[in-house]
Design a protein that fits this description.
5 helices; 0% strand; mainly alpha
Length: 138
């Protein structure tokens, strides 16, 4: 098993443990709603400390039901995950492209002297690799 596979397996086990441990040990059984969000917990704590507390602001949009609120939260999380996945995929693609271009340059240099390898074999690989190396110099 490769090092990356071991790390991925360990991370999956940790995520599963984070999801299962609260359920197994019954954390939250003493509450009416055992797994409420931080907003609800904060509201409960504030009303216990100061029952006459008035909030400074009100929400811009109050969803008509909890299901719609949950759906909007899930949509927000999905959009955020999509943006992060796009960014990391783009970074990886660029890194792989640069590695391929540098490998082509090394292969061209190892094939003989540099003048013969870059004489123009017509496949365009040298032009693409040159563009990558030009980009690095800037």
């Amino acid at each position: 098993m490769s090092r990356n596979a071991k790390i991925n397996t360990l991370l999956l086990v940790l995520v599963a443990a984070l999801a299962v441990i609260p359920l197994v040990f019954g954390l939250g059984d003493h509450k009416e709603e055992p797994f409420t969000g931080a907003d609800a917990e904060a509201e409960t704590a504030i009303t216990e400390i100061d029952p006459d507390y008035e909030p400074w602001f009100s929400p811009l949009y109050e969803p008509p039901s909890g299901e719609i609120e949950s759906a909007l939260f899930a949509l927000q999380a999905a959009i955020g995950a999509g943006v992060l996945a796009y960014y990391f995929g783009l970074r990886r693609g660029r890194r792989q492209g640069e590695a391929r271009a540098s490998a082509r340059l090394r292969a061209g240099a190892d094939a003989g002297d540099g003048a013969d390898a870059d004489a123009g074999d017509g496949d365009g690989a040298d032009a693409g690799a040159g563009a990558v190396s030009e980009r690095r110099r800037v």
